[in-house]
Design goal:
This protein is mostly helical. The protein contains 16 helices and three strands. It is elongated.
Length: 404
């Protein structure tokens, strides 16, 4: 009889993992139901395959709006079940609507809100559910939900900053690449036929461009495109592994301009997340664990894991942050002051506000600097291809004028 590993949630909403013998997955599911465990993942031991996930179907903006509306309703004194029922009926996203209906049913059945939300981990992540749990325990659920909505909105703003920093150069490079390929594939062969008919000697730039045109027009060009696509897919797959993610994130942080921006974003995200969790009553060790998982950068994640271990050993928070060499000196100094004065959450929020402003300014400066560089690059590359095609014609015109 095969042995299965499983992951799921118990009646209280806690995460459960283990192993069990069963003839098939159906029998395993029935056995777990008897133990009041709802399975979220089952795989035969030795044959575990991690299938790719394609997101939750609920974006951060929708979650922020829901959280903001939920906090207003709770503050107005409406019962939890009624709030969830109203929000589910108004929700246009069918996936989110289904999640809210399931959450309402679980709450109606006697489960706590945080435990009910833990049953939908793709929509409500550990940070969200832990904060809701802290709000339920402290009787300040409306305040916690307001903090959560503010946190999500600021996180969306950070993500938008990253996208706006990358969209312009990627867009320009894509257009440049498309124009160059079109020129080499369709336009250059016409000139090549003309030059062959005239029998003119070709200068070096023209020969290079014609050589590239021949490559793109041949099977080699097609194979090159397949190899390029394979490289991109392979790089993305490698980035999905812990080792690959660590290597690439380290390289990104060391890049001259983009690395500084990404470091600022990582600091803003870390301080905002940890500050929000601590101010909501989540224990600092648990807060560091959640913050590490949501850091968005493997280097920062490793640094925070070391910080957590150091705290477990009874050491201060500041020393391991300094040793990691990931966080700027100003950040560690301000955290040290917050640790000594007992105002850690307020200090972290101030750091986050400062670095979010720094990110906005850095993105604007980056886009301002990139715009002329991209225009010059596009002009030089496309112009170079066009001019190289006209060089033999200039030579031919000069010879004809000498003959006359």
């Amino acid at each position: 009889m095969p042995v299965y590993t499983y992951r799921g949630t118990n009646r209280a909403g806690g995460n459960v993992t283990g192993e069990m013998m069963a003839t098939n997955k159906g029998e395993l599911q029935n056995l777990l139901k008897r133990q009041q465990i709802t399975a979220t993942k089952m795989s035969e031991k030795g044959r575990e395959i991690n299938l790719p996930t394609f997101g939750s179907g609920v974006n951060a903006k929708e979650l922020a709006i829901f959280t903001r509306q939920f906090s207003v309703m709770i503050d107005a004194g409406l019962p939890l079940v009624q709030c969830l029922e109203i929000l589910a009926s108004q929700q246009e996203n069918k996936t989110f609507q289904k999640v809210l209906i399931n959450t309402r049913s679980a709450v109606e059945g006697g489960t706590t809100l945080s435990a009910a939300m833990k049953q939908s981990p793709k929509v409500f992540d550990p940070l969200y559910t832990n904060m809701v749990e802290a709000g339920e325990t402290g009787g300040i659920l409306d305040t916690i939900l307001q903090r959560l909505s503010t946190y999500i909105e600021k996180n969306v703003k950070l993500q938008r900053a990253v996208k706006s920093a990358l969209v312009y150069p990627v867009g320009v490079l894509t257009v440049a690449g498309g124009v160059i390929i079109l020129l080499l594939w369709k336009v250059v062969p016409i000139f090549a036929t003309l030059f062959a008919g005239l029998g003119v000697s070709l200068p070096l730039p023209t020969r290079i461009v014609m050589g590239l045109s021949n490559l793109i027009g041949s099977w080699f060009g097609f194979l090159f495109l397949i190899a390029l696509a394979g490289f991109i897919v392979g790089l993305k797959t490698w980035y999905g592994t812990p080792g690959g993610r660590l290597v690439l994130d380290t390289i990104i942080l060391k890049l001259p301009v983009l690395g500084i921006l990404m470091r600022k974003i990582a600091v803003a995200r870390f301080t905002r997340t940890l500050g929000t969790l601590i101010s909501s009553g989540v224990p600092i060790l648990e807060g560091l664990d959640i913050t590490a998982k949501t850091a968005g950068n493997a280097v920062v994640e490793q640094a925070l894991i070391k910080v957590r271990r150091s705290l477990e050993e009874g050491k201060s928070l500041t020393e391991p942050l300094k040793d990691s060499q990931v966080f700027p000196g100003m950040v560690t100094q301000m955290i040290a002051v917050g640790e000594q004065t007992g105002a850690m959450d307020a200090m972290l929020q101030k750091i986050a506000d400062f670095y979010e402003e720094e990110v906005d300014a850095a993105v604007k400066d980056l886009l301002t600097a990139l715009e002329p560089v991209m225009i010059v690059f596009l002009g030089v590359v496309v112009g170079g291809v066009v001019i190289s095609m006209y060089l033999p014609l200039f030579s031919l015109i000069g010879k004809l004028s000498d003959m006359h």
